Amino acid sequence: MNGPLFNTPVFTVDTIVKRLSSLFWMTIIIQNNFRSHFMPMIDVYAPNDLFPAEKDRQLGEKLTRAVLRAEGVTEPGPLHLQNTAAYIHKMQASAVQTAADALAKTVRVQVITPPGVLNRNGQKQLVKEITEIVTEISGDPSQASRTWVLLTEAAEGGWGIAGTAFGREEFAALAAKAAVAK
């Protein structure tokens, strides 16, 4: 049915609701595929005497899995597990200082993700879980008060892998391709 002016279609409330519902579900599908296909990077900066050397692997694996959970990846596959990386930067103890302590036992964990991957609940969950992991592996219950977690989203177009700088357009195309492949 067409409207009286310029042969424009007339939309009913029912038609509008159906189209909005389709857009909503398409957005959910793209977001879920987006979350499941892009891996974060994790950097841990700590004094070299804070974590026992044999615990590096455990620290890296636990942090990686915590970030994936916070992103909503419930069943990480090989792509997630092989590409979500934790870089453990152990520094001379004297290189980590505060105004109060020349040999501070502070830890800085920075997680860099593509834009929009973590929602607010995911952010809260991740900060809590990273702090718990660092505290557990350090063996010092007071470590939580000296553990900083920085969640950083890469800038638009500032997330690259395999020679491609991903922005919204590239992410959306890749997510749509993944949705069709399912």
UniProtKB/TrEMBL annotation:
Pfam families: Tautomerase
InterPro entries: 4-OT-like_dom, Tautomerase/MIF_sf
Keyword entries, A-Z: Isomerase
Record-level Gene Ontology MF annotations: isomerase activity
Keyword Isomerase belongs to the record: yes
Native species: Leptospira saintgironsiae
Gene3D superfamilies linked: Macrophage Migration Inhibitory Factor
Domain named 4-oxalocrotonate tautomerase-like: residues: 123-167
The name this protein goes by in its record: 4-oxalocrotonate tautomerase-like domain-containing protein
Highest taxon, organism lineage: Bacteria
Top-level taxonomy: Bacteria, Pseudomonadati, Spirochaetota, Spirochaetia, Leptospirales
